[in-house]
Amino acid sequence: MPDADRAAGPERAAESPAGGQLSLKKVLGPVHIWGLGVGIVLVGEYMGWNFSVAKGGMYGGLVAAGIAGILYTCVAMIDSEVTSTVAAAGGQYTQAKHTIGPLMAFNVGLFLVLEYTMLEAADANVFGALVHNVAPGLNETPFIILPVLVLAALNYRGVYATLTINYIITGFAFAAILLTFIVGRGWEPGHSLHLVGLTGSLSSGMPYGWLGLIAAFQFGMWYYLGIEGTCQAAEECRSAARSIPLGTMTGIITLLIAAIVTWYLGVGLVPWQWLGQALTPIVSIGRALGGPIVTIVIIGTFCATLGSANGCINDASRGWFSMGRDHFLPSWFGAIHPRYRTPYRAIVVLVPVAVAFAVLPVILNNPDLLSTIITFSILSALLMYSFMVPNMFRFRKLWPMGVIHRGYKHPFHPIPAITLGITAIAVFLGTFLGYGMQLSAIVLFYFVASLWFVMFRYKYVRRGAQFTMPWPRPRGYQDVGAAEGPGRTPVAAGRR
Amino acid sequence: VASLIGNVVAWLLVALIAGWLLWDFTKTNRRYSEDYLTASTEGVDEFAEVEKALRGTEQGYA
């Protein structure tokens, strides 16, 4: 038991895990990983995907769903292999630390935290708006803050309950989509759907031609954005080698099914001009069908929104915590709650950030701010996917097959990595067409953050300490950490 | 009136949860030392553990 542990008396000893050293609790299985990954994303099937129809028409929306589906399938394959092996909180951040180096890791960590925090803020904002729509007498602001605090408290109290609840509410939201398909008798297109009438001409199918189709790519990401978040839970899995690939791959299959079903029902029931502008397109689909399905999809919308915000809190806090633990940020953030075994400081510190971004559009009475927040999240994610291409090549090069065991080996390497690169470029192009200024601004933001890291923070990060896994040191890398022992890094100039 | 009650209850819940979070956060920070709270490590490879047991060596991967 460490001295610090003894000094604090018997209460601490009673609460500390075996061995006396705190760690995140290893309690998660594949269903939790599925609940986390799909939970973050499924809100995109309920709202947001339809903007791809506004840009590219019905066929444009379908192509965007397909291109983004390929992109995310590659992401899921790569993440499944690397994270089933690098089983640590921080996910892609920890991957970057091992495969590329500290500056890339810092940037990837920042991409992760901002992607999930901004998405959480958007979810909370939408939740407040939905409550206000259902009961116009209720104010939006308390109902924006309340879900953030409830879910933060849930995350604070323990990961098992958090992700079990996410699994249940996400399961309901997915079942609601499938139920809509059944009610609409999707297998019998002539029964309720009007596919020929609604998509029959090119003016409906692809009204803005090829340019509109490219512009739709960005919104195709909504169907799957966040599935890569499964990696953040790796350190808390009973067996990451089993749970991460199983949860992630079943998650992306679930999302591909949900995406196609949603698109199919949307374009078969609602004219594209309406669909492209709807705040909650799935409710429009439910209303077109009529009956109790409307209530079910409204409840499903609430569940999807909460599931997404819950998963985002989980993932953003793990990213922030990991960066603190490695001294990429002040090590104060790398603390674990002795009783609940969660990264409690990272969870609490990110709450005011999420609340501020969530209520800002309401306080300033500027709804456009919400789309800026969402764009910030999407662009951060897109930058991270670009990193995953060299990440995969480096991982296979530094630790070739046979050198270390892998929980999952993705097939056809390097085809998924190359495909991911090509599809990411296509989506970047589409994003640049619609949001060129925001894209430039965000790249500038990350550049300034990188400067801060290099000038003020890097001195606290020990050189060569990125290899925290107990693996053979790659050829050409000096064994800097060996003299000081494995594990986390003491810092060069005091502990910060 | 129902809307007013709804809004007040929502704000009360916000205050209650925020209060509990801050209370437990402060209590935990005060009760335990920094070294203890920030002592976690990453780097567990379950296959390396199996390998270590099979080979009987300290290093998971020989």
Could you please describe the fold and organization of this structure?
- The complex is a heterodimer of chains A (496) and B (62).
- Chain A contains 19 helices and no strands.
- Chain A has 496 residues and is an all-alpha fold.
- In chain A, α8 packs across α16 (293-325) and α9 packs antiparallel against α16.
- Chain A is globular, with a radius of gyration of 23 Å.
- Mean pLDDT of chain A is 89; it is low at 1-16 and 481-495.
- Chain B has three helices and no strands.
- Chain B has helices at 2-31, 34-37, 46-55.
- Chain B is elongated.
- The model of chain B has no long low-confidence stretch (mean pLDDT 85).
- At the A-B interface, α1, α8, α16 and α17 of A face α1, α2 and α3 of B.
Distance from N terminus to C terminus of chain B (CA atoms, Å) equals 72 Å
- Class based on secondary structure composition and strand pairing of chain B: mainly alpha
Spans where pLDDT lies below 50 across 5 or more residues of chain B: none
Total beta strands of chain B: 0
Could you give the distance between the termini of chain A?
A: 23 Å
Spatial extent as radius of gyration of chain B: 24 Å
Task: Give the fraction of residues assigned to helices of chain B.
Answer: over 70%
- Kindly state the percentage of residues in helix of chain A: 55-70%
**Helix run count of chain A:** 19
Shape of chain A: globular
Q: What characterizes the major β-sheet of chain A?
A: none
- Total count of helical runs of at least 4 residues of chain B: 3
Task: Count all strands of chain A and give the number.
Answer: 0
The residue-averaged pLDDT of chain B reads 85
Name the beta content range of chain A: under 5%
Quick one: which chains have the greatest interface? A-B, 63 and 39 residues
What integer is the average pLDDT of chain A? 89
